[in-house]
Amino acid sequence: MTSKSIVALEGVAKTYGAFTALHPTDLAIAEGEFVTLLGPSGCGKTTTLRLIGGFEQASAGRISISGQDVTERAPYHRPVNTVFQDYALFPNMSVSDNIGYGLSVKSNNVPKAERAKRVGEAVTLVGLEGMAHRRPGELSGGQRQRVAMARAIVRRPRVLLLDEPLSALDVKLREGMQVELKRLHRELGITFLMVTHDQTEALALSDRIVVMNQGRISQIGSPIELYDNPANPYVADFIGGANLVPAELIGRDGDTAAFRIGNGMVVRSRRATAMREPGRRITLGIRPERFVAATSGATNSLECVIRESLFHGDRLRLELGLDGITMPLFAELPRTAVSSPSGVEPGSHITLLVDPDDVMVFNAKEDQE
């Protein structure tokens, strides 16, 4: 991967009448990166992908690919190709004909021998050897997804656009295809730009993630950066599902700040270096997996009531009630952290400890960003 940008958006926006799907946006993607646009439905991620691909016309701004302004160019005049959510295969064509179709159309007109060579290489790359003469109806969902991938890469695009490419697969197939996507990206060396609403998928595959909300970019960073240091509560919640708890600053003791939550419980954090004014309203973020079962009265602990317990193999996911707070909290603990099944019955009490280094602190005004 190099620092040279292969895709650049400068002030790109998209409106539909009075509705703004994408506010003016700047984004640079380095050559060879795997970048994911992440967010819920309606956040602007698919609109951004379609603008880069040329399937939508920008209302404002400039889009460049490989240093060339492509803002007004049609999709087939851009060095990109797209893998769609629904595969979009021709049911009456064989695997090899589906893969090579884009090479056979008049605008490309790749010679027959070269076309056969590229199709054969693509079939091998995606692991479909021996299936070239089958039709899509004779393939599994995962195999059809591989055909769609091969068809996209056979034209050797500079940028591969992936629009929710794994969402139609079941869990096991999706996990397998995640490994395949990672391998293909490494072996092809081209830029991947993917859209997904699945934060687990984004964390597993991406070099960088662009978290979007209501037509704007909330934060850009590596998976580790976004998980460890989310810029606001929205990112903390969307990536990793952090508990977000309203709190009030009580005071400081050196590098540690103390906050009051609920009906008088105190939580300390070493991540509030700039906060000095007692009484300041803030939002604390605590990831469910950062809690540790503790004895009652332990420093920096919360006394909780268990509302529900979900069995996840070697771990338990607990929904908790906290005195004075209406919203539920969630904790994920090793199954061995509780002494017996009766210890996690609804209505039972549990004490949870959290390290001050793991308590994130956000300004209250950031809640909706």
Automatic annotation (TrEMBL):
The keyword tRNA processing does not apply. Keywords: ATP-binding, Nucleotide-binding, Transport. It is found in: Cell inner membrane. Residues 7-239 form the ABC transporter domain. GO terms for molecular function: ABC-type transporter activity; ATP binding; ATP hydrolysis activity. Belongs to the ABC transporter superfamily. This is ABC-type Fe3+/spermidine/putrescine transport system ATPase subunit. It comes from Rhizobium loti (Mesorhizobium loti).
